[in-house]
UniProtKB/TrEMBL annotation:
Protein name (database record): DUF8040 domain-containing protein
InterPro entries with a match to the protein in the record: DUF8040, HARBI1-like
Record domain DUF8040: where: 5-50
Pfam families: DUF8040
Source organism: Dipteronia dyeriana
Lineage: Eukaryota, Viridiplantae, Streptophyta, Embryophyta, Tracheophyta
Domain of life: Eukaryota
Length: 76
């Protein structure tokens, strides 16, 4: 079993896996942690993000059809 994994490293592993779609083995080699440790902490951070989804993910306000703001004219 690996030693203590700080929250910063857990989040770093999570953020490296998610956007780059890398395999567990890649993270295992890069962070020098066992595959089981990588998997455990990925799932731990994922569960935390899912619990915070109402705070982290918000729906954008739609732009009204009659909006005359110059910055939106290119999106018609």
């Amino acid at each position: 079993i690996d030693g203590l994994v700080y929250i910063e490293e857990q989040v770093c592993m999570f953020l490296h896996i998610l956007p780059h779609h890398v395999k567990n083995r890649t993270i295992h080699n890069r962070f020098q942690r066992s595959g089981e440790t990588v998997s455990r902490y990925f799932n731990s951070v994922l569960c935390a993000v899912l619990q915070l989804h109402n705070i982290l993910l918000i729906s954008p306000d739609p732009v009204p059809e009659n909006c005359d703001d110059e910055k939106w004219k290119w999106f018609k």
